[in-house]
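Interim report, section 4.2 (structural modelling).
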Amino acid sequence: MRPALLNPLFAPVTSLSGVGPKQDKLLRYLLGREETPRLVDLLLHMPSQVIDRRARPKIRDASPGTVVTLEVTVGRHRPPPPHNRRAPYLVYASDETGDVVLTYFRNPPGHVEKLLPVGSKRFVSGTLQMYDGLAQIVHPDRVVDESAFAQLSGIDPVYPLTEGLALGSLKRAIAQALAKLPDLPEWISPEVIRRCHFPPLREALSRVHQPIELTDVLPDGPFWTRLAFDELLAGQLALGLIRAQLRRPAGDRHAGDGHLRKKIIDALPYALTASQRQAAAAIADDLKQPVRMLRLLQGDVGSGKTVVALLAAAAVAEAGKQAALMAPTEILARQHIKTIATLAERAGMRVAILTGREKGKERRQLLAQLEAGDFDLVVGTHALIQDDVVFKDLALAVVDEQHRFGVRERLALTAKGEAVDVLVLSATPIPRTLVLTYFGDMDVSELREKPAGRQPIDTRAVPDSRLEEVMDAVGRALSAGKLVYWICALVEESEAEATDHLTNATKRFDSLRQRFGHKVGLVHGQMKGADKDRVMAEFAAQDIGLLVATTVVEVGVDVPAATIMVIENAERFGLAQLHQLRGRIGRGAEASTCLLLYHEPLGEISKARLKVIRETTDGFRIAEEDLKLRGEGDVLGIRQSGLPGYRIARSDVHGQLMTQARDEALRILKDNPKLKGERGEALRCLLYLFERDEAIPLIGAG
Ligand code: ADP
Ligand code: MG
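Predicted structure of the assembly:
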C-alpha cells in the first residue's frame, strides 16, 4: 500500500485549477503516460532552460535580440483590417524614452484588448527586435500588471512542451503541484547527504521549478543532482529487491539430458555460430546451478537469439517441465512460433501460441492443455500473464525485447511457477554501463558475430528533394523482383504532429500504389492483428513487393528476401530505432541497400545520427554513440513506448552518481533488506514516488 502521506502527489492533474480534459490529453502526451498524469509527474518534469528576465532597460537602451522586461504605458491598438486575417494585431506602447510595438499574429478575438487595455501600465517581457526602425516584441512571453509583476521571479524556467500546450499553463500547474508537496521523510542517509552536499527534497524541487539563480536548473547543479540521485537510488533499490527475490535458491534443477537439444541442432539448416554455442552452454550451466538463472542474452538484430532461446526451452522440456516465451507484440510472437514450431516439432517438443487473438473456446481449450502439461513451450504476448493462465510446471521464462516490458510483467510471468529461471532477450545492444541501470545485476551473454553468409548493407542518406529519383530506383528494383520496405514515421498525421513535410504511411501507400499498382501493401500499428499478419505473409510470399510500414516492423520481423529499405523522414528517428529498422534487411544472402530520406535543413544531432548509421552496422557501437547523442531513455526506446523510465537522471551528466546510488542501494539492502523502521518507511516513499514499487509486495509490510 502506498503511504497515505504521498496521496496528495498522486492526485490527478485534472484536480488542479486550469487543467481540464484538453490539458489532460496534452499532458498525457507530453509526459508519456497512458492515464491522466498525477501531480508527481508534473514535479518530475524538468525544465530544459531558463530565461533571464531581470534586464529592465528603458526602451531607448534595450538591445535588439535580447530578452527584456519593459515597463510601458499602453497606447493605441491597430487590429488587422477585416479582410486580412493574416495581418498582425499591433499595440503601440511607450515609456518616457521611446516607443515599442507589441505584435500579435492570429490571436483569438478579444484577447489582446483584454490583455493590454489602452492607457494601462503593463510589464511586458520578451525578445526585443528592430523592425522598420521600430523596437518591437512579437508575442511577448509575459504581460502583467504591477501587482502580478511583484509576484514574479526574474528568472523563468522553460519546459519541453507539446503543441497546443502553453508554457504559462504548464507552469501554473507545476506551481500548484509544488504548493501541495507534503513534508516527506528524508530517505538519503545523513552520511551521503553530507558527503554530496544534497539539499532537502523540497528545496531541490522548488529551486528547479522556481529558480532563484540562473544555475539552479543545471543538470549538474545541486538541486537537479539531488533529484537524479533519488531517481537512481529508487531504480537501484528496486532492482536489488527484485534480484534478491529472483536469486532465491532454485530448488529442483531442470538440467535435461540433452536429447531434445541434439535433435534440434541436427534439424537446423545451418551451423550455430560460436557465440550461439557459448550462450547455449552458459544457459545449460545456469540451469544446473543451485540458484535461479537470471541471464541477459544480448544480440544485435538478426544475430540469432531465437534458436538459443529454443535450446534453453528444450533443456527444461528434457526435464519434463515447461517454458514460456513472451514477446512484446503479436507480430513478433507469431514470428517466433513460425521459426520455432518446425524445429521444435521435429524434435518432438509440443508448442503452442497464446496471444490476445486466441479467444473463447479455443483459448479455454489451450489453457486446459497448458495446465495439464500438454505443451512444453508456449509462445505469446501479454496474454501469457493473465490470471487464468496456469502452467503445470513452468520452469523457464524467456522475455523477448525486455525493455518494452516493465519489471512488473517479468515478475508476473515468473510468479507462474516455482523458482522459475529467467532469460531476457534484448535486441537493442545496451552498453555495459547501462545493463546495470536497466536490468540490474544479471549475467550477460552476447551474440556479437552475425550468422555466416550475411551481406553488408549499403546505407545512404538522400535529401527528400530527390524523392522522384528514389521512386524510380524502387520501381526498377521491383521489376527485378526485389522486396522493398518503405518506412514512414506516422500512420495519420496526429494533431500534435501535423507538419507539412511529414509523410504518413497511409498517404505514401496511396501514392506508391498509384504508381506501382497492386504490388504495394501497408502495415501499421492501428491495424487489426490478423490484417497485419496477412499483409506480412503476402510480403514474405512475395505476392507484394513493396511494403509501406510504420515502425511496427521495427522489432524482429523476419523476411530474409527483403533487400531494400527506404526510411522517410529519417531525421525523425532515434539511432536505436534506425538500427532496428535497418536490421530488417541484410538478413539473406543478397546485398542490401538502405536509403535514409531526410528533410532539409538537418539539425546537428540528426546530422550526427545519420552519419553514425551510415558508417556502421555494429549495434554495440551505435548504442554507444546513441548514448553520447541523447539521454538514456531514448537509447532503450523507453520514451517511445511510454514505460516509466528515467526522467531526471542523465547518462552524460550523472554517470558518477549511478555508482554512488548503486553502492547506497547495496548498503541499504545489506543492513535493512526488508526496509523496516523509520528509514525503511522513508525508502518505501521513495520507491512509490518514482514508481519503483513493484518489489514492495515481495518484502511485505514494514
Ligand atoms: P534475432 O536475434 O534478431 O532474434 P533471429 O533469431 O530471428 O534473430 O534470427 C534471424 C535469422 O537468422 C533467422 O532467420 C534464423 O533462422 C537465422 N539464423 C539464426 N542462427 C543462424 C546461424 N547460426 N546461421 C545462419 N542463420 C541463422
Ligand atoms: Mg528476435
